[in-house]
Design a protein that fits this description.
The protein has 95 residues and is α/β, with parallel strands linked by helices. The protein has two helices and three strands, in the order E-H-E-H-E.
């Protein structure tokens, strides 16, 4: 049986431009709707993370829009990380 306080999936998207932000939003919406079909899973068990190397997301737009989006993310259950670059990585479970 799965513990309700355990994260079972991390979805990581690299790139905070239009494509990355749209991808995170689409995946987040899809996963949250799909969870309704799995009553043994909770929303806290899935994280959607955007990694961006720049100081703000959506650099093509006004900086204030990227800042506003970052501030609204906790309610959307997405996480934005800026100022970091992604590298090839390996996913390992510690079960």
């Amino acid at each position: 049986m799965l513990r309700k306080d355990r994260v079972v999936a991390d979805v990581v998207v690299a790139g905070g431009g239009f494509a990355g932000v749209e991808t995170v939003a689409g995946i987040n919406d899809f996963v949250r709707r799909a969870l309704r079909s799995y009553p043994h899973l909770s929303e806290d068990m899935v994280r959607v993370i955007l990694i961006h190397s720049g100081p703000v997301i959506l650099p093509e737009l006004e900086e204030s829009l990227g800042v506003t989006l970052r501030k609204s993310s906790p309610g959307a259950r997405s996480r934005f990380t800026s100022g970091q670059r992604s590298k090839a990585f390996r996913v390992a479970r510690s079960d």
